[in-house]
Write a structure and sequence with these properties.
Elements: H1 2-16, H2 18-66, H3 72-87, H4 104-115, H5 128-172, H6 176-206, H7 212-223, H8 242-268, H9 271-278, H10 286-302, H11 312-315
């Protein structure tokens, strides 16, 4: 008997706090997903890192043996200075000295990566004034960019999502959730083709050292605003029409980001995903809200003086004219007679 009561109480407790349990499972799932990513990245990339370290040590050792007049300390100072400059986008190599990082088109490309929060990191401000301006520019520009993208996506959604779904729903009488799901799938296929597959093929043809996988990787890292910076187009020594190429990449990034937001917003409006999100969100307890409002009103009235609160009977005013009371015809009232 006690076990059944305890079991029923546990079931009621779980059902009454179902959203909290779902949220707990969501947090645990996210932590496990982070751990899974760390394990996979470590197991895949650590051997390559160790191999690269060994190769660099061998090259450095061979270089010091061939140049005995150069001490290891002087070589370390030179390499540290060169690497520090490379972190700011300035290379000491002869084949990279012809291109500038802060001409107009390169600066425009940098501004677009800052405002879109992509941030490749291959170029960074060198001066204190540039760093201070970057902070102020980002504080104002990032909310401005969010406002701009929201307005653009809202207008595009009218013609790309809402009207087509309503047209098919009313014209053929199909289920609206089914039409929305098919439309979102087709829109995702078109977006992937136009902003991932085709640009990846173009980048693999224009960039000498990029294959299709690396080009697709750059498109995904850029349009998802991850921006690792390991692949940046237009940085080759013999890049033809570099300024025009950089300008085209800037336009591509803005249009691709808008397309990705449209696709994401289309999927977020699917009825299936709305039901999934409700599992993890807090439900609004309307009954408790009404009780809180009533309690607040009660406290407000109780704080008022007694003379300012009158009963409904006291609010009624007496008539200005006293009408005579009619009696029966057999009565003694002269007016009735």
């Amino acid at each position: 008997m006690l076990q059944s009561l305890a079991g029923n109480s546990c079931v009621r407790l779980i059902q009454s706090n179902k959203s909290a349990w779902y949220f707990l499972f969501l947090v645990l799932g996210y932590i496990l997903y982070l751990i899974f990513g760390a394990v996979v990245f470590s197991s895949v990339e650590l051997p390559y890192e160790d191999l690269l370290r060994q190769q660099l040590r061998g090259i450095k050792r061979q270089f010091l043996q061939e140049h005995e007049c150069l001490s290891e300390e002087r070589l370390e100072r030179f390499l540290s200075k060169a690497l520090e400059a490379s972190n700011y986008g300035v290379s000491i190599l002869n084949n990279a000295s012809a291109s500038w990082n802060w001409d107009f088109t390169s600066s425009l490309f940098f501004a677009s990566t800052v405002l879109s929060t992509t941030g490749y990191g291959h170029t960074a401000p060198l001066s204190d004034g540039g760093k201070a301006f970057c902070i102020i520019y980002s504080v104002i520009g990032i909310p401005f960019t969010l406002l701009f993208l929201t307005a653009v996506v809202q207008r595009i959604m009218v013609y790309s999502t809402w009207r087509p779904i309503m047209y098919v729903h009313t014209r053929w009488g199909l289920s609206k959730p089914l039409v929305a799901l098919i439309h979102a799938t087709l829109l995702a296929v078109v977006a992937v083709s136009c902003f991932f597959l085709i640009p990846a093929a173009i980048f693999s043809a224009l960039e000498e050292n990029w294959n299709f996988l690396e080009s697709f990787y750059f498109c995904f890292i850029s349009l998802s605003t991850i921006g690792l910076g390991d692949y940046v187009p237009g940085e080759a020594f013999n890049q033809r029409f570099r300024e025009l190429y950089k300008l085209g990449i800037t336009v591509y990034l803005l249009l691709g980001l808008i397309a990705m937001l449209v696709v994401l917003e289309t999927f977020c409006e699917l009825q299936q995903l709305k039901q999934l999100r409700k599992m993890f969100y807090l439900k609004k307890e309307k009954h408790q809200d009404r009780l809180a409002i009533m309690e607040h009103d009660h406290l407000a009235f109780s704080s008022m003086p007694d003379g300012t609160i009158n009963s409904p009977q006291e609010d009624k005013t007496e008539p200005f004219v006293d009408f005579p009371v009619l009696t029966s015809p057999g009565g003694d009232d002269p007016m009735i007679k």
